[in-house]
Amino acid sequence: MYQTARTVAASSSTRLHSPVAWSSRKSVQDYYDLEAGETERTPLLYVRDNGRYRVAKLRAADPNHLHPVAVGLMVALLVFLLIGVVIGVYLLLLTVQRPWPVSHPFFLVERPAWWQYPVALEATTLDRQAVTDVIVLHTDSEGCLDQERCVRYLQNTERSCWTARRDHIPYNFLIGGDGVTYEARGWKSQHGFDDLPGRNMTLVVGMIGNFTDRQPAQVQYDELKAFITESIRRFSLSSHYRLHGAISATSQDGAALYNQLQRWPHWHGFVSRHP
């Protein structure tokens, strides 16, 4: 019996000095008792501190915690996607070719600004967004060097066309000697010339004045360039457009104007006006 008592005492002494011994100052729920076999509590971790063992709890992994490597990969992926979008937009802009660098700003006076009468524009709509041809004419009339006179010319021409054939001014746009573009039928409607081809694929631009024997003002040429560039920018004119003049078999109208336009990019010759 004495030997048995010594064995029990030794066992108890060993357990008291064991690294996993219960502490009288700690709650039972704070530790995991290896001998008790309670697996639902947090396991213990043996940590050696200055030659002595102490007990530490293993922390459970947070399911909402993102690993730094995963965060880095996500950021890198977003950066690559952003770079790809920027490159794609840049390449798309390169496909929209500009006929020339334009320093002259584009000035537009829309139709409602010069025509405020009850008769609204009624013209056949173009069934395509970007047309392929531009025909430039001169109006074979007195020129205008300020907005007041240019507006008066448009109003008189609109009245004359409506009185003569119950139709609107036939041009899509007109450019005055003041360096301003005036909207007539605009980008979305077919021109109204019966003697010109390609109604559904052509914009007709009139240069206000008579330019058979003299050149238009340089500001009119500059505004014509700005108009073409703006039409491409609006996707209302193909970047591979064709520039034309219009002549008849018995007339050399606009000879001085066309002498200059034939040197421009995209010039594609004359179209015939039917008598």
UniProtKB/TrEMBL annotation:
UniProt GO MF annotations: N-acetylmuramoyl-L-alanine amidase activity; zinc ion binding
GO BP terms: innate immune response; peptidoglycan catabolic process
Annotated Pfam families: Amidase_2
Cell division as UniProt keyword: no
Keywords from the named record: Immunity, Innate immunity, Membrane, Transmembrane, Transmembrane helix
Peptidoglycan recognition protein family domain segment(s): 106-248
Residues spanning the membrane: 69-93
Family recorded in the similarity comment: Belongs to the N-acetylmuramoyl-L-alanine amidase 2 family.
Designated name of the protein: Peptidoglycan recognition protein family domain-containing protein
Provenance organism: Anopheles epiroticus
Lineage: Eukaryota, Metazoa, Ecdysozoa, Arthropoda, Hexapoda
